[in-house]
């Protein structure tokens, strides 16, 4: 059955992603930081194939978080099932958009390292892993998310859509 242009289509509204416990992304950032440090170590010791494979795996995890959302990331699921039940409730929940955007930034950084590594530029694997490590370390240890800050900056500048200015002040 075709719908004529005059008839409005029934569009199923997108369900909003639930707010996140801010400790979940920090938990994931800690695991990611350790794995990225392993990539840097492997890269520096000449195990470039192992470093490239691990960075490719991390790029896959970043892709998962960027496309499925930070709350559906495997580390987030582990946090929700195993860690959060043992903690006191969080003081506040956070919007999942900035951590999800941060996952996309991590994806871009690690993907550049993977592509350059596959192209034969082995040092790029370690450099990309080191750059991503700095961001993951800052998030895990100091609760400072570089990707989230970039998200808010772009939102305030209006680069991420019209509704951004109101949401940026949240």
TrEMBL record:
Highest taxon listed in the record's lineage: Bacteria
InterPro entries in the record: DUF4395
Region (Disordered): 1-20
Keywords: Membrane, Transmembrane, Transmembrane helix
Tagged with keyword Transmembrane helix: yes
Occurrences of domain DUF4395 (ranges): 21-156
Transmembrane feature ranges: 27-44, 50-71, 101-121, 127-146
Protein name: DUF4395 family protein
Lineage, top ranks: Bacteria, Bacillati, Actinomycetota, Actinomycetes, Micrococcales
């Amino acid at each position: 059955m075709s719908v004529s242009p005059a008839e409005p289509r029934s569009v199923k509204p997108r369900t909003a992603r639930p707010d996140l416990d801010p400790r979940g992304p920090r938990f994931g950032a800690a695991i990611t930081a350790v794995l990225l440090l392993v990539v840097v170590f492997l890269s520096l010791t000449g195990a470039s194939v192992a470093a490239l494979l691990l960075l490719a795996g991390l790029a896959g995890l970043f892709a998962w978080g960027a496309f499925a959302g930070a709350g559906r990331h495997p580390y987030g699921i582990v946090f929700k099932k195993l860690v959060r039940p043992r903690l006191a409730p969080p003081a506040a929940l956070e919007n999942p958009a900035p951590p999800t955007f941060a996952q996309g930034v991590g994806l871009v950084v690690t993907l550049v390292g993977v592509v350059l590594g596959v192209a034969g530029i082995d040092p790029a694997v370690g450099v990309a892993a080191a750059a991503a490590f700095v961001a993951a370390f800052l998030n895990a240890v100091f609760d400072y998310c570089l990707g989230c800050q970039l998200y808010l900056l772009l939102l305030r500048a209006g680069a991420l859509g019209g509704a951004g200015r109101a949401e940026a002040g949240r």
